[in-house]
Design brief:
Layout: H1 2-19, E1 43-46, E2 49-52, E3 55-61, E4 68-74, E5 77-78, E6 85-86, E7 92-98, E8 106-110, E9 118-125, E10 130-133, E11 137-143, E12 151-159, E13 165-175, H2 195-206
Parallel strand pairs: 3-13
Antiparallel strand pairs: 1-2, 1-13, 3-4, 4-7, 5-6, 7-9, 8-11, 9-10, 11-12, 12-13
Length: 235
């Protein structure tokens, strides 16, 4: 009976511990309107440490069922456009557009806890693990990609982490491929298409493909109405 009582009490304590979840108070954006966003590179403080934007890029993920666009704003730097960021554990703020929609020019206010296609997050490496906070409250002014493919805008956001984490300023993000599009390190590169088949494909596209180039069976090409693999979101 004593063992049963102790087990019941321990179970009660375990349940009590689970119910005591720390809830952070909601916060407001640091500015009230897009016109008040500072005209300077994004900067501020995240988890008590200074944040200054040094690399801005956006990545489109077109995989079916995972479609989204991330605008990654980092304290790290890259030697080349879209190159590896150093150090390897930079503090980052990122804007995510969920779904397959393209970035459109618009001003908006993101309210914590309110569903939206756009959301703001940050992550910090504390030396042992990554710490992240999502669902920031923000004022965002964004412009669709220009002729050079770059996306520009202004962001002012605060996060409900009880550490007064807020950043504000502008960004100019270059388009970069998803890491899923890059060749696997150490993998053998794919073989080039044989010249005779490459010519058949080009001639078929022009509507002048012969039945065969070398007397053998003609290359069977897929229906021209099919969506190319990359456009269909396959990686």
């Amino acid at each position: 009976m004593r063992r049963l009582a102790l087990a019941t009490f321990a179970l009660f304590l375990g349940c009590q511990a689970e119910t005591h979840v720390t809830e952070h108070k909601a916060v407001d954006p640091p500015v009230a309107s897009p016109n008040a966003i500072p005209d300077a590179p994004l900067n501020g403080t995240l988890r008590g440490a200074p944040f200054v934007l040094r690399d801005a890029r956006y990545i489109i993920d077109r995989r079916i069922g995972y479609e989204h666009t991330d605008i990654k704003l980092s304290t790290g730097k890259a030697d080349n456009p879209c190159g590896p960021i150093t150090p390897g554990t930079p503090t980052s703020v990122w804007l995510r557009l969920q779904g397959s929609d393209k970035i459109e020019t618009k001003d908006m206010k993101l309210v914590s806890g309110t569903p939206s296609a756009w959301s703001v997050h940050y992550q910090v490496f504390d030396g042992e693990r990554w710490l992240g906070v999502a669902d920031g409250s923000a004022v965002l002014s964004i412009h669709e990609a220009g002729p050079d493919g770059r996306v520009t805008g202004g962001l002012a956001v605060c996060f409900a982490d009880d550490m007064k984490s807020c950043v504000s300023g502008s960004f100019d993000a270059q388009s970069c491929p998803s890491s899923l599009d890059q060749a696997v390190r150490g993998a053998t590169p794919p073989e080039a298409i044989p010249e005779k088949y490459r010519l058949q494909m080009l001639q078929a596209a022009a509507g002048t493909a012969p039945s065969s180039l070398d007397g053998g069976p003609a290359l069977v090409l897929p229906d021209a109405g099919l969506t190319p693999l990359m456009d269909a979101g396959h990686r």
